[in-house]
Structure formats: C-alpha cells, structure tokens
Amino acid sequence: MIDPTRGVLFPHQLPRFTRLAPPPEASELIAWLWVPQWNLPPGVESHQSLLAYPAANIVVEPTEVRLWGATTRASERVLRGSGWAVGAVLRPAALMKLSDAPAELVDGFVEVCAPDLHEAVAAAMPDEQAAADALSRWLIARVGTTTAGGRLANEMSDLLLSDSRIRRVEEAARRMLVSTRTFQRLTRRTVGVSPAAMIRRRRLQEAAQRVREGGGSSLAEVAAELGYADHAHLAADFRAELGLTASEYHRIIRSISESVAWRLPADAPRKPRSRM
C-alpha cells in the first residue's frame, strides 16, 4: 500500500494538514485527497519541503484551480498569512482523461477552467471532508467510467510505487506480463515520467523516511536494504534531488526541534511551488 505521508521531509513544520481517503466510487481515480489550512502571524513564514510521489494533482485554492504534473525534484512552498488548498493525488486512470500529454505537465501546471468546481469547494471550506467530497464528485462527473487501459495504468503505478521488491523496470514489466518497452511507453503516456524515475523516487522516499524515523540502522545498512549499490550511490541520489546528502539530512533531523524551522538549501534543485 502507498504511504501518503512518506514524501514530507520535515513533518513537524506542516500547518494543519489533513489527508483523506477518496469515496469508494472515486477509488480508481484518486489515490488520496489532502487539505492544508494555515493562519500565520504577520511576518511569519512556513517552509514546506516535499519529495512528492510521481503523480499528477488537481488543486483548488481560493483564487484558482490547477492541474499539476508529476515532479522530478524536491520542491518547496512558502506559506504566509492565511489560506487553504484542497487537492487530489490523481491515479493514472484519471490523468488519462484530463490530459492528452502528461509528459508536458511534468514539473509544471495548467490552469483549469472549472468555476463549478471552485465554487463548490470554496463553499464547503473550512469543512475538509465536505470540500474533499465536492472535488471527488466533480472528478467522477468529469472523468466518467474508468477504461480497461486506465485500470492497467493504475496497476502499473501501484506496483512501481508500493512494492519495494521492484528495483528494475524489467522486473516490473515481467510482473505485468508485458515487454519492457510496452511498460515504459505506458508510464510515459499515463504519468509523464519513466518507470525508472518512479522507482528511483520511491526508493529515495523510503530512504528519507528510514533516516527520519531512525530505528538504529546505519546509512550503509539503509542503502543495502533498499538496493543501492553502496552508501555513495544513496548519498548521490540525495544530493541530486534534495541538495544535501543522506548524512546531512540525518544530522538535520537529529538536531531539529519543534521550535527550529529548516528549509531546503538555497541552491537545491527544486520548483517554487509544490503539491502535497
């Protein structure tokens, strides 16, 4: 099962943040829904750092509705003042119906003209469940019936993002009983990124979670258990996506406290806006 909390790099810095399961009738379209709300004093900022799942999100905010593509780097959003958002992590079956070119959305977004959706969600807030239900109903009506191809794409995504035994694209393709080339085309067409990128993101999320939660394992042991060739490869992946190594992240997590905020390094490769 996919753990929706895994990609949050500094959980203690989150504002009020709720994750909700989709209604049964939307389970083939939505992985989960998320609703942050914040009300910060003047001059106070909250930096939200995220290593998101490689999936699209549709997000309703007070002034806009956007469809965000999958991300390839850690991202950060700076919260100020007061606000809210209601988002849904989309399964491939939904994205296939909302976009003809998911790859063009990667690390970006498009505005969605959906005044009915915005009105329904805004009217429901601050009732998080009611707002999430409004978004779910809109998606069901907009997307319609899930196709066999959509279900196949969902199965592919679930396999890559939840089965830690899958470390190579060829292994995933064999499990799905398709060729490696077919598998690669399917992920790019329905998610927008390669299956190798999805596996790499899952392993890095798992590594960050293991480092964050402790448990007594050394970083070398974590690297070995997650299938990295050695500690150096894990450190390289951390550096490439977060702008710091696993050892540096471990030291930050150990030293951080509720009263000390931390943010990604200024030179870390990231996008200015993030999806939770």
Automatic annotation (TrEMBL):
InterPro entries per the record?
AraC_XylS_family_regulators (IPR050204), DUF6597 (IPR046532), Homeodomain-like_sf (IPR009057), HTH_AraC (IPR018060), HTH_AraC-typ_CS (IPR018062)
Extract the Pfam families matched here.
DUF6597, HTH_18
List, for all copies, the residue spans of the domain called HTH araC/xylS-type.
150-252
Give the matching Gene3D superfamilies: Homeodomain-like
Highest taxon of the lineage:
Bacteria
Keywords of this protein's UniProt record, alphabetized? DNA-binding, Transcription, Transcription regulation
Q: Any idea what this protein is called? A: AraC family transcriptional regulator
